[in-house]
Design brief:
single chain, 108 residues, alpha+beta, 4-stranded antiparallel beta sheet, 3 helices, 19% strand
Length: 108
């Protein structure tokens, strides 16, 4: 299932529900079928995601001949969070009428 994010200031963002649910838990948001971020809460949500990414980020790996091929590496929390962090921060700076809404076929 996909979750679609629409911002009054940026482009549309699509995310798999499983990833969105993880990010919503980190921000303290309910993963309902529809919802929104009001402008006053966007920076706090972005900060919560930044902190979670910082806490989850592993130390950089040293170069090794046995290192996995980059194509088979899993997508990290960092990679999944940054598009939403960017949307939250850019929209949050746009003023009091700025908003982000999300929609999914059902609660996730």
């Amino acid at each position: 299932m996909l979750v679609r994010f629409y911002s009054s200031e940026t482009g549309e963002l699509l995310m798999f529900a499983e990833a969105a649910k993880t990010l919503f838990q980190m921000m303290g948001k309910e993963s309902s079928a529809r919802g929104s971020f009001a402008q006053p809460e966007m920076q706090a949500a972005a900060d919560a995601l930044r902190q979670a990414v910082h806490n989850e980020s592993p130390a950089p790996a040293e170069s090794d001949e046995d290192e996995e091929h980059p194509v088979v590496r899993p997508v990290t929390l960092n990679s999944r969070a940054w598009p939403l962090i960017d949307m939250l921060e850019r929209t949050g700076r746009a003023g009091p009428k700025a908003n982000i809404i999300w929609e999914a076929p059902s609660a996730f």
